[in-house]
Every structure is written in C-alpha cells, then in structure tokens.
Design a protein that fits this description.
This is Transposase DDE domain group 1. This protein is α+β, with helices and mostly antiparallel strands. It has helices spanning 30-41, 43-50, 64-76, 84-87, 92-98, 114-124, 130-148, 215-218, and strands at residues 159-163, 166-167, 176-178, 183-186, 189-193, 199-203. It folds into two domains: 1-153, no CATH class; 155-220, no CATH class. It has eight helices and six strands; from the N terminus they run αααααααββββββα. The strands form two sheets. The chain has a three-stranded antiparallel sheet with strand order 1-5-6. A three-stranded antiparallel sheet has the order 2-4-3, with no helix packed on it. β5 (189-193) and β6 form a beta hairpin. The protein is globular, with a radius of gyration of 20 Å. It starts with 29 loop residues before the first helix and ends with a helix.
C-alpha cells in the first residue's frame, strides 16, 4: 500500500485541509502555499501599514490587505489580467486564499472587483507609494534569503542590472517604438540577485531610453 500523506493546514485558516486524493478539485491550490509565504514574510502587513491610500474609505468594501493578496496571488498563479478576478469571483479556493477572515466566512464574501483592483494599481503607482512598494519587495527577498540556510544571510551577493523591454498594445504615455525590438515598448531597468534570481527593484523608463540611462542615479538609491 502507498504511503498516505497527512493533510496540510495553512496557518491563515484552520478550517482548510489540503490533501492529495486524486480528485480534480482545483488547479490553483498553490495559492494557499503562496499565502503562507506572504503571511510568514510579513510583507502584506508592512505594505498595509505604510501605503498611502487616498481612496474614500466609505467606498471601499475590502481591506487593503485582502486587495493586495488578490493582486499578488492571482498574478503569481498566472492570472495576469485584472479581468481574471471576475472569472475567479466565486471560486472557493480564491475566496479562502485572499480573505482576512477565518473559518467558512470567506465563502460568503464577495471578492474585490476588477475596478477595485484597477484603482489599487493606480494607488500603488503614486509618488507616495513607490518607495513603500520597493521596501516591501526587499522585505520579501530578505525573508526568502534568510529562509534558505537556517537564518544565515549570505556574506556576499552580486547585483545584476538589466533592461527589460515591455511591449505595449496602444499608445500609453511614455511608451515608444524601439527599432531593436520592432515594437512599441517601455524600457524599465530591473535589479536582481545573480545568485538567486530574486528581483530587488525596478525603474520604469520611457521606451526610447538608452541602455544605461538613469542607472547611475537609480542604483545608489
């Protein structure tokens, strides 16, 4: 007889049991594992405490934490478009993975709409919040690195700075046609750790920016 694995219970909700039983229940169960990582890192709480949200509080039905989880977890699981949240609106797994509530309460709750997440994206991109988002990213990277070797931080790391063409399908402000790529793009700089591949920062630049443009002022920052 094969060995039977014990169910895994995520710390965010003791009512959930994750187990392998051969049934096709969902293909997104990894969202619960990612939720566990987010909770252990403390990054969502740090963002919630420090982000400046100028949206009218009486018009917001969902906590900032649940909105952030929805945005991060859906993208991490391959649901890239904001419109995907409507597709997943009544999916029990996503209701459980993104909610602040425990027990079966999340199953009776609505999830953030596409419009709500769109406004959140605008909020995250404001001048008040760019540095806060970067700090959240760094917090997540530091947590992951210290989790790899029993809490020991690496003595030395190599920072790679690369350009990353992002093709756009329209004439968004700041985008431009780039002859090398044969497309209309943004040309952000991305900083990552050579040893692990972790992204530690990014700088959005116009599509016609030179390869090293702004790097000398951005890297020290």
């Amino acid at each position: 007889m094969g060995e039977r694995l014990s169910p895994w219970i995520p710390s965010c909700n003791g009512s959930i049991r994750v187990e392998l039983d051969g049934q096709r229940t969902t293909s997104d169960s990894g969202a619960l594992l990612l939720r566990e990582a987010l909770d252990n890192s403390g990054v969502i709480e740090a963002l919630e405490d420090n982000l400046v949200d100028r949206r009218h509080p009486l018009r917001i039905r969902h906590s900032l934490a649940s909105q952030l989880r929805t945005l991060v977890l859906q993208r991490a699981m391959g649901w890239i478009d904001l419109s995907d949240t409507d597709t997943l609106r009544r999916d029990p797994l996503w209701q459980l993975a993104c909610s602040d509530a425990r027990g079966t309460t999340p199953l009776a709750q609505d999830r953030p709409s596409q419009a709500t997440l769109s406004r959140l994206m605008t909020c995250l991109g404001s001048n008040d919040n760019i540095d806060v988002v970067h700090e959240g990213l760094l917090r997540l990277v530091v947590w992951r690195l210290t989790s790899l070797k029993n809490g020991e931080r690496p003595e030395q790391l190599t920072l790679d700075i690369d350009g990353l063409p992002i093709e756009v399908h329209g004439h968004q402000g700041g985008s431009a046609f780039h002859g090398l790529y044969g497309a209309r793009i943004y040309s952000p700089l991305v900083a990552s750790l050579a040893e692990t591949g972790d992204m530690v920062g990014g700088l959005l630049r116009e599509g016609n920016a030179g390869p090293a443009e702004n790097a000398d002022t951005w890297i020290p920052h």
